[in-house]
Amino acid sequence: MATIKDVAKLAGVSKATVSRVLNGNERVSQIARDKVKQTMKELGYKPSALAQALATNRSRTIGMVVSDLSGPFFGPIMKSAEKVIRDAGFQLVVTNGHGQEDREREAIEFMTNRPVDALILTVFALPEEEIVELHRNGTPIVLLNRRIQGFEDNCIYLDNKQGGYLATKRMLELGHDRVAFLAGHFTHPDSLERLEGYQQALDEFGIPFRQDLVFDDDYNEDGGRRMCQKLLNLKRDFSAIFCGNDLIAIGARDVLNQHGKLQSTCMVGFDDVTFAQYLNPSLSSVFFPVEQMGERAGHMALAMAGHKTAAVTHVLQPRLIERESLMAAQPND
Amino acid sequence: MATIKDVAKLAGVSKATVSRVLNGNERVSQIARDKVKQTMKELGYKPSALAQALATNRSRTIGMVVSDLSGPFFGPIMKSAEKVIRDAGFQLVVTNGHGQEDREREAIEFMTNRPVDALILTVFALPEEEIVELHRNGTPIVLLNRRIQGFEDNCIYLDNKQGGYLATKRMLELGHDRVAFLAGHFTHPDSLERLEGYQQALDEFGIPFRQDLVFDDDYNEDGGRRMCQKLLNLKRDFSAIFCGNDLIAIGARDVLNQHGKLQSTCMVGFDDVTFAQYLNPSLSSVFFPVEQMGERAGHMALAMAGHKTAAVTHVLQPRLIERESLMAAQPND
DNA sequence: TTGTAAGCGTTATCAA
DNA sequence: TTGATAACGCTTACAA
């Protein structure tokens, strides 16, 4: 690999001059500039990002910690974030936090040792103080899907309450007055906010909230299966189900199907992951603007890393995607 | 951030000594070692991976280029690769090649400037020579889903022919003698290999190959829709369909469903992406061991980066996952 | 406009 | 067993 030294020598100038033409414009004579550019080409010279980082104390790298490197939710977020980050000439480095406190901490440490110019975090387990402190210690942070008091400027999250509201309201409009809610664990703030939306819709329609129609469990298929099973076992009367996310919906459908109730139950999921539309009947869902979130996160991180970018919104708005699962069933089946 | 200098000064030793205890064991007195470790803790000292990389010319970083940062196929590959890489104390850096030649080239350049100690590539568009040359020029390469003559030691790929064979054979066994094949583009070697397997199965059952039952198009839902539509328009007689991947299968199902033929058509997809099991009827598919591929790739890359690891296999074996889509239909419907 | 030289935080060579 | 000191490839005062 050719170094700056080689270029300088061959071009007959000093390293400083080469460095100058490298870093866009400074005061370099046209002759020198041309000569240097020319020799750079000849040698196939590429500056070492490493050496630059060490010298400038900026790595042009943005770190990202997600709870699951695979899966339909984080993929699109990563993808869109990577796009804006790479377009800015920065590099995105992603690592998996697995949603566990110690893994998350380790992942972050791993990144800060590199180091990164900014960090995009989706961590649920890590205590708030650590996050805020990290930021104060000089690693700029963008926090996704989590809101910390007094740290709102660094957070990007969905209006979960609105999501819960939209879903529930639509089902009520369709005449379903007994809407169950199979939520993710209520230890998770998102779940509670979605519950608030659910309640708000009920209030508006003058329908009393019934604790016995609400369950919480894991945010995945098994959680959905368990909750739906409970719902059926308890012989609760219901004609519609609002699910905390699409995976829960899938598990619940499984159980409903076994009981021959899949077609007759109105259902809305949450997130609108790609495969929701491919299910049969297709699953209605609260659309989570994941691409938008990734994009915003990228811009925000770049801004913090000193790269100028547009202003960002911190609260994203969901919207309801209506599909077969919403329309097929009749309230009084 | 505390540097090695700070530690040295406070501990009353030289930088060299600190560096020695840092890099595991060398000849350092117990007293010095303890003292240094102690002060490291006090100062919360973390070595700069950057400076280490510059000095050693090894970054402890593995790069990875995928064709799609989101999507059900690459997610699990990345996830499992990241696990083994991180467990070895290395960092995985992923970027998106978008399956386009120029983007792929750019992505690779981006990584080699960092630099990385090895590169895991899933690139379909980039010419073979460039890949091989890159390797020769000192960036060790692991190539996924692609086999280059004389470069096999660096490649990890699925036995696609076997996959095609298994799927087709099973359908033939079930009595379907008119099996259509909706493939990905035949410019893609994988598609051709799967076709070979398809033909082999036909041969074994003494069933003549019929060109008019074979189509190729994009490896996605739209491709599947188009091909299935053609198949129906041409009034070909068929009772089973083998699809080049699960996305094609989904598109085809869509069309079949519109024609009331979904339940009566035997179908097998390829890849066995997560949602295949959630479709209704659930989709049979040729299982692609993605986790295994990611793992192997990680190990291989680490080995090339000088980190000792176990030997790896280069050819992965598929297996058939039988679900409802295979059993529901009768050959003579 | 250009060059010299110090510095970024490490490792590594060579003496001591 | 230790410590100077020169690298690694680049940036950036400061001087010329």
UniProtKB/TrEMBL annotation, chains A, B:
<dbReference type="InterPro" id="IPR028082">
    <property type="entry name" value="Peripla_BP_I"/>
</dbReference>
<dbReference type="InterPro" id="IPR010982">
    <property type="entry name" value="Lambda_DNA-bd_dom_sf"/>
</dbReference>
<dbReference type="InterPro" id="IPR001761">
    <property type="entry name" value="Peripla_BP/Lac1_sug-bd_dom"/>
</dbReference>
<keyword id="KW-0805">Transcription regulation</keyword>
<protein>
    <submittedName>
        <fullName>LacI family transcriptional regulator</fullName>
    </submittedName>
</protein>
<dbReference type="InterPro" id="IPR000843">
    <property type="entry name" value="HTH_LacI"/>
</dbReference>
<feature type="domain" description="HTH lacI-type">
    <location>
        <begin position="2"/>
        <end position="56"/>
    </location>
</feature>
<keyword id="KW-0238">DNA-binding</keyword>
<dbReference type="Pfam" id="PF00356">
    <property type="entry name" value="LacI"/>
</dbReference>
<dbReference type="Pfam" id="PF00532">
    <property type="entry name" value="Peripla_BP_1"/>
</dbReference>
<keyword id="KW-0804">Transcription</keyword>
